[in-house]
Design brief:
Largest sheet: 7 strands, mixed
Distance between the termini: 12 Å
Order of helices and strands: EEEHEHEHEEEEEHEHHEHEE
Strand order of the largest sheet: 6-5-4-3-2-1-14
Strand content: 25-35%
Helix content: 10-25%
Radius of gyration: 18 Å
Number of strands: 14
Length: 269
């Protein structure tokens, strides 16, 4: 079985800090690498870590807040300077293509590769990418703008005694970006192997969750428990809290197998 992993490129929220950059991570499954979200500075971290951008298969953008997509135009420009030739597929809300087209026309003329946008409906649960090895499905979330997470499901063909092949689902990774806590989320990701869930606040700041439509670490842990997840990774930390151990402690009280999304670290799926 090929190794599966998630590499954290940024695990902060909207305001960058000395500890955290805005959101971004690389998911590697079935010998393919996918970028989820692309906040400012993501490509710098990728370069510093030696991530091979030539192997980047597709980009998935959860929503159009700047801390999740401001780094995309810079990444595309860099890929052009590196003489990428294979198309770059970007899955996002339809408005992203409208917003980026003037920037691409102005800053990225003469690219050596094609940028192909795939409009998705963040409010609908549906498969947006699939091949013979895996599928990617949207996870509708509740935020101040249309937002979705992404569920990666590895597919494996097994021969049964009759000689026929059946497709068996194997590893599953769920990315739940900015969202207010909802019991519905757990139902959409039941039995997931690894769950990344935003935990912008600690319980001390729970009053901010309703107006900003974010979650606490405890609420992220509750989602993991209800989903029967095997492992929880928490991130998207507010700049209001310097000590990330507070997030971890609150989450582990509900879901012990919780870890912090430390930037520049890779976790096995």
């Amino acid at each position: 079985m090929n190794k599966g992993s998630v590499t954290i490129l940024g695990s902060g929220s909207a305001l960058p800090t000395y500890q955290n950059s805005p959101s971004g991570q690389i998911v590697s499954l079935c010998d393919k690498s996918f970028l989820i979200d692309c906040g400012e500075g993501v490509q710098i971290t990728m370069r510093q870590m030696g991530v091979h951008t030539s192997r980047l298969y597709s980009v998935f953008i959860s929503h159009l807040h700047g801390d999740h997509c401001f780094g995309l135009i810079g990444l595309i420009s860099t890929l052009g300077m590196l003489h990428r030739t294979q198309p770059l597929h970007i899955y996002a809300h339809a408005d992203l293509e409208k917003l980026m087209k003037p920037w691409l026309d102005y800053y990225c003329q003469g690219l050596s590769f094609e940028v192909i946008f795939h409009a998705i409906n963040p409010r609908k649960q549906e498969v947006i990418f699939e091949d013979r090895t895996l599928t990617v499905e949207t996870i509708p979330l509740t935020h101040s703008v249309p937002t979705c997470g992404f569920l990666f499901t590895e597919r494996h063909r097994e021969r049964i005694m009759s000689g026929d092949f059946v497709v068996v689902s194997q590893r599953r990774y769920a990315y739940c970006s900015d969202t207010r806590y909802s019991t519905k989320t757990a139902d959409l990701i039941k039995g997931v192997d690894v769950l990344y869930h935003e935990s912008t606040y600690t319980e001390e700041h729970i009053a901010r969750c309703q107006p900003t439509m974010h979650s606490t670490a405890k609420q992220a842990a509750q989602t993991a428990q209800d989903a029967l997840a095997k492992k929880l990774i928490i991130g998207h930390f507010s700049a209001r809290v310097d000590d990330h151990e507070q997030f971890l402690k609150e989450a582990q009280e509900v879901f012990p197998n919780t870890i912090i999304a430390k930037e520049r670290e890779t976790f096995e799926i």
